[in-house]
Amino acid sequence: MIALEERSQTTLEGDSAPIIEVRGVYKQYVRTTYRPSLRHEALSLLRRLIRKQTVAQPFYALQDVSFSVARGESVAIVGRNGSGKTTLIKLLSGIMRPTKGSLRVRGRYASLIGLQAGFIGELSGRKNIYLNAAFHGVMPRQIEPYVEDIIEFAELRPFIDTPVKHYSSGMSARLGFSIAIHVLPEIIFLDEVLAVGDAAFQQKCIAHMLKLRAEGRTIVFVSHDSSAVRLLCERALWLHKGRLRMDGESDLVLEEYEYFMQHQPPDSQ
User: Fold this and answer.
1) Which of 110, 121, 122 is nearest to 150 (CA)?
2) Helix (H, G, I), strand (E, B) or coil at 45
3) What is the value of pTM for the model shown?
4) Contact between residue 181 and residue 208 where contact means Cβ atoms under 8 Å apart
5) 12: exposed, middle or buried (C-beta count within 10 Å: 0-12, 13-18, 19+)?
6) What interhelical angle do 199-214 and 169-182 show, nearest 10?
7) What superfamily would CATH give domain 2-23+69-268?
8) Cα–Cα distance between 169 and 160 in angstroms, integer?
């Protein structure tokens, strides 16, 4: 999903204040499981398996997470599947609200979370550029100067007037990423989008992200690709079972994380 928004851009703290602040954040979900009903013991096993009642089990995807990000920092969020990485990015993007705690994002941001999210399949790629921008507050006259650059970067010119429903996952990712980087946000949230597409396009994306970092943009990047993290981010946050286990220099965090994943039994990961 691409979200473009501005939160508290004018602040009393000035440029020295953290551009992102997360304090004691919890996010609770309710997991629904099923068990056979006990009211019909006389029924057959098949009938009892079909007739079920739901049992709600609350659980925390994030627990007491706190950190801040300085303006212009590039920060990776790492951890195994289910550790809370995507939940955290969604909270930062304003897609969800925390159950407890507070977070603040200062400045305009673009968020790329999920392939084809924010696109309408029946519309062409070109129309989706305008629609997606307008949906998030960027008017046609504001996005118009960047449309050709978006198409060129995404390498979709032969297909830009084709309905998005016919795009592959890689094509959708290229279009979404291209829109996100061309709206010139102060902050960019990325969730595994560089894992889609061919190697050449991934390298192209990383090169552009390095350029944005050099321009002083703030980047928060969720990835399982250690080489991309090391290249793009000077700092990493390691989430484990919803908690912030380590926060530090990318090389050090990745070394600890990789050692943990290689030496711990599966049930303790």
Assistant:
1) 110
2) helix
3) 0.79
4) yes
5) exposed
6) 10
7) P-loop containing nucleotide triphosphate hydrolases (3.40.50.300)
8) 15
| 85 touches 240 (CB < 8 A) | no
d(CA 122, CA 163): 5
Helices marked H in the chain = 45-50, 85-92, 125-135, 140-143, 147-154, 169-182, 199-214, 226-232, 250-263
Question: Could you read off the pLDDT of 176-213 as tens digits, one per residue?
Answer: 888 888 877 889 998 876 666 677 888 888 888 899 99
Torsion of CA 86, 89, 94, 95, to 10 degrees: -20
The residue whose two tokens read 């090169």 is 207
Instruction: State the Cα–Cα distance between residues 123 and 119, nearest whole angstrom.
Output: 8
Phi, psi of 259 (to 5 degrees): -65, -45
Side by side, the strands of the sheet bearing 74-78 are 2-7, 107-113, 187-191, 218-222, 74-78, 235-240, 243-249
Three-state secondary structure call for residue 268: helix
Q: Is 231 helix (H, G, I), strand (E, B) or coil?
A: helix
pLDDT in tens, 88-104: 999 998 889 999 999 99
| DSSP classification of residue 226 | H
Q: How far apart are CA 2 and CA 6, in angstroms?
A: 13
